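Sequence, structure tokens quoted for completeness.
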Amino acid sequence: MNQLMKFGLLSATIASSFSAVAKIEVYENDGLSFSADGLVNAFYSNSSIETTDAAGVGTDRDQSRVRMGFLPNNVGFNFSNQLSDMKIEMRSSFWVSINDTDNNRDASPADLGTGSLIDVRQFYATVKADWGEVLIGKDFGLFNRANILNDELLLGFGQTSDFFGLVDGGNVSFGNISTGYTYPFPKAQVTYRSPEFNGFKIAVGLMDPNKVSSDSSEDLPRFEAELMYNSTFDNGSFKAWLSGVSQSSEVDGVEQDQSGVGYGANVKFAGIALTASGYSTKGLGHVAGLDQIVGPEVIETDGMLLQASYTLADHRFVMTYGRTEVENTNSDLDAEHENTGLAYFNTIRPGLTAVLEYNHTEANVTDSLVGEDNDTISIGAVVTF
């Protein structure tokens, strides 16, 4: 399992890759437009970690880093063309890690120093008309997409469990991935989104399936779906969502089924926002909360996230608690990860946000008999355009 975790962390570009940013219109004429948007962030973080091994021996260490937060730095380009009653759009976005200063002192000299990760997470086109929208290309999945988009720590730092290698990792901090939701990994897909009807909107997608192993067989694509509901009332709004995922794999003649359901609700009024979300899966997302890592359905995962925030002018205050439990129903190999956090966001100017955050992360993993207590304080800034 530890090898899988390291592989997922190093090769899968772990990040929640969503940001609500303004965009710059580069060109617009006769229904034809081209725009760009971007995000840059950096945080100073200080982590104090205590771990306990199978023999009950405790160790502790403190670590300071200057690194990016939950969202990677990115730049995106958008094209659209209105053709009579049909609109064609394209988006490409590129995500860059700045966490490359000194992550592996045991490496050869040639591997030290800068080596910024550049990752393409969105490269798709959409066709829109009265009947809805069809997306073709690479984009984030639908399952648990709304859970992560509605995380109040989206522009912040979140959990940095040392068990997952996040304190010194070359990618991002984790927000509440593995402590409340799974990460809707970018996937090649064909997805249909319906028009809104009485506040409801549905999306269904055929995704490139995630393989259990190099020699596994997937006869059908991965299916994902999302149902959204939005409404407004005097000085407030309400939204709710439900998502699902299903795929099957065959390994050495044995069929393995993976499935999951995600859900949540958010209400805003008088500057207050309350969010509750959760999910449950079988054989999916059981390693570090990465939903592209699949396995047998005897591995069951459940997560929940509760958050409250208050916004006063340019100030936003956040309280958060999330937990994920992993259980193998064929053995006693279980794990529990949870995160409790406080955060303060100050919009200094439109497009410039200062962040101060504290997170307490705990991990208890029975297969390696590891216990972890991690206290992380981070302060940083986020610039968007």
